[in-house]
Amino acid sequence: MDIVAVMIGWPFLVSALLLAAAGIWIRKPAFLWVAVVLSLPVALYISATPRFPFVGFLPLAALVAAALTVRRRSRLAGIAGVAIYAAFLAALAQLVLNEP
User: What's the domain range around 8?
Assistant: First the structure.
């Protein structure tokens, strides 16, 4: 894996997760929208692989749904969306770390 992909991808994904959690905590959907924008390059990169053509956009859809539900004052649904995103990141990290 290229060092540029590592330096851009993982810090963006972790900061997107932190921003999403902060957006739910303080009930500001703008933080969740910034998390979506930060996650977009990695989602496009993952979706370009032939094995996972649409999987990269699923966590983005979860973050968009979380932003929309936080805007409507439903914190629990927002937490569910961010939990889906966190589970995706954990699965992606496991795939990367166990790559031969």
Answer: 3-97
Cβ contacts of 19-27, under 8 Å, gap ≥ 24? 20/63, 20/66, 20/82, 20/85, 21/82, 23/66, 23/67, 23/70, 23/78, 24/66, 24/70, 24/75, 24/78, 24/79, 24/82, 27/70, 27/73, 27/75
pLDDT at 36 over 80: yes
Q: Quote the tokens at residue 76.
A: 């629990």
CA distance 22 to 26: 6
Record the pTM. Answer: 0.83
Question: What phi and psi values does residue 65 have, to the nearest 5 degrees?
Answer: -65, -40
Place of tokens 């930060």: 38
- Domains identified in the chain, total number: 1
Q: Which two tokens stand for residue 95?
A: 């795939």
